[in-house]
Design a protein that fits this description.
The complex is a heterodimer of chains A (about 180) and B (about 400).
Chain A: H1 2-11, E1 14-21, E2 24-29, H2 31-43, E3 49-58, E4 63-72, E5 77-86, H3 102-113, H4 144-151, H5 163-171
Parallel strand pairs in A: 2-5
Antiparallel strand pairs in A: 1-2, 3-4, 4-5
Chain B: E1 33-37, E2 49-55, E3 58-65, H1 73-77, H2 86-89, H3 98-112, H4 118-139, H5 142-145, H6 151-171, E4 180-181, E5 184-185, H7 193-216, H8 219-225, H9 235-239, H10 243-248, H11 255-258, H12 281-305, E6 327-335, E7 338-346, E8 352-358, H13 361-373, H14 381-387, H15 392-396
The chains are: A alpha+beta (about 180), B alpha+beta (about 400).
Chain lengths: ~180, ~400
């Protein structure tokens, strides 16, 4: 696996790399380099199984981190190709031409995080939410509690507790 | 027969494809009709629907619609401590919730450097196999159910109930067990549990024989299921097909063998692979049937090999204030539907930055199903869909 990562480093700049365990590695590269790296891994290194496309919102740093997880079915090893993109007008190159299921991941990320993938099929069609007119709900600034309080109303007689305080009262009332 | 009648040899040419590469479907021509298969339909797996464009009784276009069950779990996780995610995470999959418990627990343990004790690992293995069997008992006779032969399903529901009794005895809950927790499991095997479970397995052996005769040896079922919904083996990687659906296409994919976790490396078993690459509705159900038989054998093997007693929980930090070190990981296990994984990201705080589920249905129910349904008969929608064992909550999360 180290050899494969060295091969990638010959092609593009790897800004971070981590061996999470024997069969799981993460590498971070730039926005314009990610899709060529993924294509290389698929076509030349045998990472033929696309596991998932995910994103973590690092709001404090003003960035999203996309993670393309690829699997090598013969060598039994995974590699996560990570890409940092700005949160403002977030956009990423599409990878729908590489695996058939990627367009549905990209469609979901467009709806849930507002990350655009120009050229991706049906990317503007709603995935889960119909008629949603607020900010994409998976962005961290979207306040679910505020939304729930404004949209729904509580049933009379229902109490809520802060779980940590409630458990402390139950378990360690004198501390 | 009218000599002018001609069968179109290549059905994919009907309707024709326009210059822009899209199908030329003119709904106003009266030739095509749009119908909705689900979300309320006996032949739909859970709360999802299919928007079908049909010409006569042939499907020319299919689109999967989800969103009827979206509960925002992954968003909720951001507001919960890691431990508080447990009661929620199990609800991601009703028929087999234990895989969620295991994946989250394993991700937290890996990021924190905690290892569950030996006995707890055996108990986890046992519970995951029981969960697989519970789901297969309901799914396998479902082949008959999709074609109007509901008797096998009724038998399966009863058999599943026997195992739910065991789950209730072991965990206190029938559906959402919350038994596998970070660091280990919640309890030991009750007295007499092993004997009662073995007795249930004996009944399931008998059930398996009856199901084979009722469904798999049934001429009508064979006539409808063989050759229907064919998944080409080359699509396995192209569409991300996993688990029994891949094994029906002759591609051996099983996380338990490929990436052994818990105690699977110490168990002697071989996942069933359809060497004939049938890869149709019948073949996929037959692989699941064989999985059911193998799971029963595996549970017996686990009960035989596991220690009688031991520690159930490793030493873990205060569960209410457990800060997971900064990092990210992907943990997978084999559910009855295939590879099931969690991508977890921690920012070093008590709250997860991101927990993302990768369920097999995400690819099977959208990209693959939409492809398989084109040119299928509308009466084959349910068998094809159920043969992929799609589970909408995995998609919506």
């Amino acid at each position: 696996m180290e050899e494969i990562i060295k091969n990638i480093e010959k092609m593009v700049v790897i800004t971070a790399k981590k061996r999470q365990r024997d069969n799981l590695y993460f590498v971070t590269t730039g926005k314009d380099q990610a899709i060529p790296v993924i294509t290389y891994l698929r076509d030349y290194e045998g990472f033929s199984h696309f596991v998932m496309l995910s994103v973590a919102d690092w709001m404090e740093e003003g960035e999203f981190e996309l993670m393309y997880l690829l699997n090598h079915p013969v060598k039994k090893v995974d590699i996560g190709v990570c890409v940092r993109i700005p949160r403002e007008n977030a956009s990423m190159h599409t990878a729908h031409h590489l695996w058939e299921q990627i367009w549905s991941y990209q469609r979901e990320l467009k709806e849930m995080y507002g990350i655009d993938f120009p050229g991706s099929p049906r990317v503007d069609e709603s995935f889960l939410l119909e008629g949603w007119d607020q900010i994409p709900p998976m962005r961290r600034e979207f306040d679910t509690l505020k939304y729930a309080e404004e949209t729904y109303f509580p049933r009379p007689g229902r109490e809520t507790h802060d779980p940590a305080t409630y458990m402390k009262q139950k378990l360690y009332p004198n501390e | 027969m009218n000599s002018k009648f001609k069968i179109e040899p290549d059905r994919s040419l009907y309707p024709s494809v326009g210059k822009d590469g899209k199908l030329e479907i003119d709904l106003s021509s009266g030739k095509y009709v749009k119908i909705w298969h689900g979300p309320n339909h006996p032949g739909v797996t859970g709360n999802m629907s299919l928007e079908l464009t049909i010409c006569g009784d042939e499907i020319v276009e299919a689109k999967t619609h989800v969103g009827y069950l979206h509960r925002g779990f992954e968003k909720i996780f951001e507001r919960r401590t890691w431990m508080q995610c447990f009661p929620t995470v199990v609800r991601m999959c009703v028929p087999e919730p234990d895989t969620n418990e295991y994946c989250l627990a394993a991700a937290m343990e890996e990021l924190s450097g905690v290892e569950a004790p030996e006995y707890a690992q055996w108990m986890r293995t046992l519970v995951l196999e029981m969960a697989r069997l519970t789901n297969l008992l309901r799914t396998v006779p479902g082949l008959g159910g999709t074609m109007g032969l509901g008797l096998g399903v009724q038998w399966g529901v009863y058999m599943r109930d026997l195992l739910l009794d065991r789950f209730e005895e072991l965990t206190g809950a029938r559906i959402y067990h919350m038994y596998i927790i970070p660091g280990g499991v919640r309890g030991k095997m009750p007295e007499g549990f092993k004997e009662r479970l073995l007795s249930n397995l004996k009944e399931i052996d008998d059930f398996s024989l009856r199901v084979k005769k009722l469904i798999f040896d049934n001429a009508v079922v064979k006539k409808r299921a063989v050759g229907t919904g064919y998944v080409d083996p080359s699509w396995v990687d192209r569409f991300g097909v996993v688990g029994p659906n891949a094994r029906a296409a002759g591609v051996n994919r099983d996380v338990r063998k490929d990436y052994p976790y818990l105690k699977y490396a110490e168990l002697d078993f071989e996942p069933y692979v359809d060497e004939n690459k049938g890869s149709d509705v019948y073949s996929r159900f037959w692989v699941r049937y064989m999985d059911m038989i193998n799971t029963v054998a595996l549970i017996r093997q686990i009960l035989d090999k596991m220690p009688n007693d031991g520690e159930i929980l490793a030493r873990i930090p205060n569960a209410l204030h457990w800060s997971i070190p900064k990092g990210q990981t992907y943990v997978r296990c084999e559910s009855s539907r295939g590879e099931y994984g969690f991508y977890a990201v921690s920012d070093g705080s008590e709250y997860p930055r991101r927990i993302n589920l990768r369920g097999p249905s995400y690819t099977h129910a959208i990209a693959l199903l939409e492809k398989l349904l084109v040119n299928a008969n509308i009466s084959d929608v349910s068998p094809i869909m159920v043969s992929l064992t799609t589970c909408p909550p995995e998609i919506e999360r």
